[in-house]
């Protein structure tokens, strides 16, 4: 992944690390996404979400979340728009958009993500989303 601003590309500031994660995800660059995650990352997808659970390690996160989203959805994207930063905590208000491959139904739902960043790496992630809207897009 190429960044125009080289300071941003290496910044350990929590909001910059999180933003790089969103950019990598949107580009489908799993290597760049894994580079934002700590080796002992804990990544929690909300109960009720199709991929609910807690995943560990950068490879575990990308294999069990990003790659599986790509299998079930076309153009899955998290559009980050509002950041609230308090030290190592970053809360991002965003929107998921996608089209479910099985039903052809579009998804457009608000989401909140809580990240904890230490030493320039994401060590913890927790998702909050209206899982009923996600499931509705998955159901005929």
Structure description:
With 140 residues, the chain is of the alpha+beta class. Helix content is 34%, strand content 44%. It has 5 helices and 6 strands, in the order αααββαββββα. The protein has a 6-stranded mixed β-sheet. The N and C termini lie far apart (37 Å). The relative contact order is 0.19. The mean pLDDT is 94.
Task: Describe this protein with a few key phrases.
140 residues, alpha+beta, 6-stranded mixed beta sheet, 34% helix
Order the strands across the largest sheet as they lie in space.
2-1-6-5-4-3
Major sheet attributes: 6 strands, mixed
- Unreliable stretches, pLDDT < 50, 5 or more residues? none
Strand content: 35-45%
Going by helix content, strand content and strand pairing, the class is: alpha+beta
Q: Give the count of helical stretches.
A: 5
| Helix content bin | 25-40%
């Amino acid at each position: 992944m190429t960044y125009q601003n080289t300071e941003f590309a290496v910044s350990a500031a929590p909001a910059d690390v999180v933003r790089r994660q969103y950019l990598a995800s949107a580009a489908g660059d799993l290597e760049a996404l894994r580079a934002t995650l700590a080796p002992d990352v804990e990544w929690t997808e909300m109960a009720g979400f199709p991929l609910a659970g807690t995943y560990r390690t950068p490879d575990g996160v990308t294999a069990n979340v990003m790659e599986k989203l790509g299998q079930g959805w076309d153009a899955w994207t998290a559009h980050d728009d509002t950041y609230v930063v308090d030290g190592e905590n970053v809360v991002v208000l965003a929107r998921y958009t996608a089209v479910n491959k099985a039903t052809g139904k579009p998804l457009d739902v608000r989401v909140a993500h809580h990240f904890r960043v230490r030493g320039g790496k994401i060590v913890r992630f927790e998702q909050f989303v209206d899982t009923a809207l996600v499931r509705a897009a998955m159901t005929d």
